[in-house]
Structures are given as C-alpha cells and as structure tokens.
C-alpha cells in the first residue's frame, strides 16, 4: 500500500479522542516525536514512517495512531518551532534596549536553528513540495514580529534603510543554507556574520 493511501485510510477511520494518553502511549508518542525531529532536521519532509518507527522502536501502526498523516507529524514537529520563533521576537521587541542588537541576535538565532533543520527551512521558504504549508495566521505572526524588529533597528539607524522584510526573509533562507555548508567545513557562524555585516548602514 502506498503511503498516501495508508494516510487516507487511517485518517478516514481515526476517531478523535480527548482521553489522556496512558503512560506507555505517551512515552511512545514522545519517542516518535523525538526521532521525527532528528530525521526531519536532516531529511526534510521526505522521511518515511517506516524508518521513523524503526528508529523509535515501535510499530509503524503506532506512528500512524498518533499522527494519522505525514502532514500531522510534520505539523507537530515544525509548527511548534515557528511558534517559539514568534514568542522570542515578541520578547526581544518588548525588552531590548538596543534595537540593532535585538534584530541581529534574532537573525542569528533563526539561522542557527533553521540551518540544523531542513524541514523548517522548507516550511519557512514556502516550498510547494513540502508535506505542510505554514498556516496563514502563524506565517503572518512570524513575518509581522520579524518586521517589527527590523523596523525598530532601522529607526535606530542600526540597519541600512533600503532593505525591507522581504529582503531579510530571502537572506534568512539563503544564510541558513550557507550556514549548513559552512558548518560542514568547520566554519560555523561565518555566513551569519557576513550577512549581518552587509545589513549595517553604510
């Protein structure tokens, strides 16, 4: 049976439940999520449920029981990280006394996280081949708060005035890919430093 057929069959027959998970079921779910996070960080959204189940030490039916579709698993792993990104941007925007430092710290934080997680990179880039599209509201929140940090830094003359959030988002994805390669040649953070230097006012 093809994965998409299995996805559809399980999804059609899976009954929602609000009962709390038993301790063993909760452990299995947590283990599946931990393995999925690791595999998605290197393989993107193409990872197979069979391999996740094998590495987690559970049957593939257990994976489908907790996550009836590939999109459901991808969502659980990826969207939680993007929600954390939004929370961090809100905190930096409200608490930082130096807008330029807040923007640069946030950009470096995002690149470092996304560089280690190919699935996150795909989701934020809006790749149509991924298993999940980021919900409009979550994407809007992410862009809005990132833009707020950018605008605060520009108003403080800490970032060049001729860039906008679309430019920065493009640079973010490019820097994440470059950072992944830089780490393979033992040069971590070099790509981040180059991009941030280019964003300083001239």
Automatic annotation (TrEMBL):
<feature type="domain" description="HTH tetR-type">
    <location>
        <begin position="26"/>
        <end position="85"/>
    </location>
</feature>
<dbReference type="GO" id="GO:0000976">
    <property type="term" value="F:transcription cis-regulatory region binding"/>
</dbReference>
<dbReference type="Pfam" id="PF21597">
    <property type="entry name" value="TetR_C_43"/>
</dbReference>
<feature type="compositionally biased region" description="Basic and acidic residues">
    <location>
        <begin position="1"/>
        <end position="11"/>
    </location>
</feature>
<keyword id="KW-0805">Transcription regulation</keyword>
<feature type="region of interest" description="Disordered">
    <location>
        <begin position="1"/>
        <end position="23"/>
    </location>
</feature>
<dbReference type="InterPro" id="IPR050109">
    <property type="entry name" value="HTH-type_TetR-like_transc_reg"/>
</dbReference>
<dbReference type="InterPro" id="IPR001647">
    <property type="entry name" value="HTH_TetR"/>
</dbReference>
<keyword id="KW-0238">DNA-binding</keyword>
<dbReference type="InterPro" id="IPR049445">
    <property type="entry name" value="TetR_SbtR-like_C"/>
</dbReference>
<protein>
    <submittedName>
        <fullName>TetR family transcriptional regulator</fullName>
    </submittedName>
</protein>
<dbReference type="GO" id="GO:0003700">
    <property type="term" value="F:DNA-binding transcription factor activity"/>
</dbReference>
<dbReference type="InterPro" id="IPR009057">
    <property type="entry name" value="Homeodomain-like_sf"/>
</dbReference>
<feature type="DNA-binding region" description="H-T-H motif">
    <location>
        <begin position="48"/>
        <end position="67"/>
    </location>
</feature>
<dbReference type="InterPro" id="IPR036271">
    <property type="entry name" value="Tet_transcr_reg_TetR-rel_C_sf"/>
</dbReference>
<dbReference type="Pfam" id="PF00440">
    <property type="entry name" value="TetR_N"/>
</dbReference>
<keyword id="KW-0804">Transcription</keyword>
């Amino acid at each position: 049976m093809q994965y998409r057929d299995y996805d559809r069959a399980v999804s059609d027959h899976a009954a929602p439940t609000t009962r709390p998970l038993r301790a063993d079921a909760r452990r299995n779910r947590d283990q599946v999520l931990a393995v999925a996070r690791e595999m998605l960080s290197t393989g993107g959204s193409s990872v197979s449920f069979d391999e996740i189940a094998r590495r987690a030490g559970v049957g593939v039916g257990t994976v489908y029981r907790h996550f009836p579709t590939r999109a459901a698993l991808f969502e659980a792993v990826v969207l939680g990280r993007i929600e954390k990104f939004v929370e961090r941007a809100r905190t930096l925007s409200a608490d930082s006394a130096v807008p330029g430092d807040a923007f640069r710290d946030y950009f470096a934080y995002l690149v470092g996280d996304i560089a280690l997680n190919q699935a996150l990179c795909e989701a934020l880039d809006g790749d149509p081949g991924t298993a999940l599209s980021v919900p409009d509201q979550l994407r809007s929140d992410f862009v809005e708060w990132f833009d707020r940090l950018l605008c605060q830094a520009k108003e403080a003359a800490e970032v060049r005035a001729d860039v906008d959030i679309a430019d920065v988002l493009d640079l973010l994805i490019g820097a994440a890919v470059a950072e992944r390669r830089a780490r393979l040649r033992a040069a971590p953070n070099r790509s981040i430093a180059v991009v941030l230097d280019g964003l300083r006012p001239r």
